[in-house]
Amino acid sequence: MGRIVLDKVTKRFGDVEVIPPLDLTIEDGEFTVFVGPSGCGKSTLLRLVAGLEDVTGGQIQIDGSDVSSMPPAKRGLAMVFQSYALYPHMSVRKNIAFPLKMAGMKSAEIKRRVDNAASVLNLTDYLDRRPGQLSGGQRQRVAIGRAIVREPAAFLFDEPLSNLDAALRVGMRLEISELHERLKSTMIYVTHDQVEAMTMADKIVVLQAGVIEQVGSPLELYRTPRNTFVAGFIGSPKMNLIEGAAAASYQAHTIGIRPEHFDVSAEGGKWSGTVNVSEHLGSDTFLHVQGTGLADSITVRADGEVAFRHGDTIHLTPREEHIHRFDAKGLRVE
Amino acid sequence: MATQHSRSAARMMMAPAVILLLGWMLVPLCMTLYFSFKKYLPLRGGDLGWVGFDNYTRFVSSSSFWPSIYATLVIVGGVLAITVVFGILLAILLDQPMWGQGVVRMLVIAPFFVMPTVSSLVWKNMFMDPNYGLFAHLWRFFGAEPIQWMSQASLPSIIMIVSWQWLPFATLILLTAIQSLDSEQLEASEMDGAPIISRFWYIILPHLSRAITVVILIQTIFLLSIFAEIFVTTGGAFGTKTLSYLIFQRVLESQNVGLGSAGGVYAIILANIVAIFLMRIVGKNLDN
Ligand SMILES: Nc1ncnc2c1ncn2[C@@H]1O[C@H](COP(=O)(O)OP(=O)(O)OP(=O)(O)O)[C@@H](O)[C@H]1O
Ligand SMILES: [Mg+2]
Description:
The complex is a heterodimer.
Chain A: E1 4-13, E2 16-26, E3 31-35, H1 42-50, E4 57-62, E5 65-66, E6 77-80, H2 92-102, H3 107-120, H4 136-148, E7 154-158, H5 166-183, E8 186-190, H6 194-200, E9 203-208, E10 211-216, H7 218-223, H8 228-233, E11 240-243, H9 245-248, E12 254-257, E13 262-265, E14 271-280, E15 284-290, E16 298-303, E17 313-318, E18 324-326, E19 332-333
Parallel strand pairs in A: 3-8, 3-9, 6-7, 7-8
Antiparallel strand pairs in A: 1-2, 1-4, 4-5, 9-10, 11-12, 12-18, 13-17, 14-15, 14-17, 15-16, 18-19
Helix pairs in contact in A: 2-3, 2-4
Chain B: H1 4-36, E1 38-41, E2 46-50, H2 54-61, H3 65-95, H4 101-109, H5 116-127, H6 134-141, H7 149-152, H8 154-179, H9 183-191, H10 196-223, H11 228-232, H12 243-253, H13 257-287
Antiparallel strand pairs in B: 1-2
Helix pairs in contact in B: 1-13, 2-13, 3-8, 3-10, 3-12, 5-8, 8-10, 9-10, 10-13, 12-13
The complex binds adenosine-5'-triphosphate (ATP) and magnesium ion.
Magnesium ion binds at residues 42-43 of chain A.
């Protein structure tokens, strides 16, 4: 069990209100991802749930009971830190066993659980090493091992993959997703990498300056962003936001077109411009088009085989059914 | 950088410092060894020739030798225990965010800048004097008989005085070590359900082990040779005669340079035994 409810939770550091009153419900077993730009309060929100920071106002409930003034250990949550926060002078085995030892568990039971966690996480060969003798990915797994042995009501992850290189990150992303499939426990995952958010989440919470901009499944956010902030934040490369006459012709203040929703042609189309940079990724080509009169630069995602190069003239046609319209306040218009 | 040429240049440039330091160390060492094999009484006939190991046997067979070793070890051990334990407590205290932190830290460090003679005299006369010392007033206030610190509790008094001087050093080193502890580790242990005592025992103390080692090693080196504190307080009476004080008495009070030099050689040996012993127990803390 692990249903987490935030009820008008507020956090101030001195005079600065980092989290204005915020309501959020995280269902049992859900994989929730907090995304947002740096400094928007993701870590703070997670630490509030963990109990490492005290709420200034409002209430946090776990499975129906108010935990706002409970110490972290009593909340039954486990956290994986960005720096892993392993205990450097203890072996991997002792690190993983530490929460169980603190809970006063029998040593036979501790051994059973540690061995179990180690085999799940492929750490069996490293149990007698110190954290300093492990690679980044292995340390990450030890940190996860230390979290899972306690069988917590929910897991909290604060940017757990940001210290890993790109290849390892993809691998660990899968491992965490598999872990969630197997354990079926609630997980809250903080990241500013929107690829992680899109691929892992059941539910994404987009934050800006402590305010929830939108909550929804990855595809909901992709298809129907509630405002220009979410539209620009979710999706890679970013959605093109176009104002002015082109937007007015769609009866909107701003229109948003994702790079993948353009048809390109050398002969003719709705808008035209010159290719400034073309980035060939093999499967796709990202074209940065200038001089369209729409915005400084329009990003277009085209087929991997297109042959546009710097200086070529290109014609763009948006797919009408995929155009997002926003009003002057930046809110979505249907 | 480390080419043949640059390495020999580096050696050339380091040479003056190395030669100076070596001379500084070797000249007294050689003179001590030289005199330790001589009967040399400056006021009673001067150089009276070579005597072999005579001075060495006489120094050890003197009735003050073993008590002086004992006094030395008790003082060093006592001061180490007090400075390490209170140093850790003070460091933890000073690490807490509090009002006036900067001033408090300055005050804690201040004793280190007071000269040993001055601080010992202040302790002896202002605190420990059995008639008008502050402690005497305190004892009388509670209706107790004031303690004759310097005679009845001579070793504890000296340990107290020296600890007061060295506590700032230990605190300072341990404070910087505590400040380097990753706060996420403490938070992780908090999440793991460790109460405050366990957090200290399993996280903070192991983190400090290296700094504690450094404090013990450096203090031991200096404490083996404390002198001024004893000279101005008990003058070596009441069982406070340490090895270095005994050597001083042999050379200057008895005017027996040969005997004192032999004692000096023993002191070098003792310091090395203690150093090797310490390195052994704490050395493993330093390698990882
Ligand atoms: N202890 C603190 N005292 C004062 N302000 C703080 C404190 N901790 C965080 N803040 C402020 O709160 C805001 C949110 O910080 P937080 O760490 O939650 O950001 P974040 O979304 O996790 O950013 P990042 O992606 O860079 O980790 C920031 O503006 C930060 O300066
Ligand atoms: Mg953060």
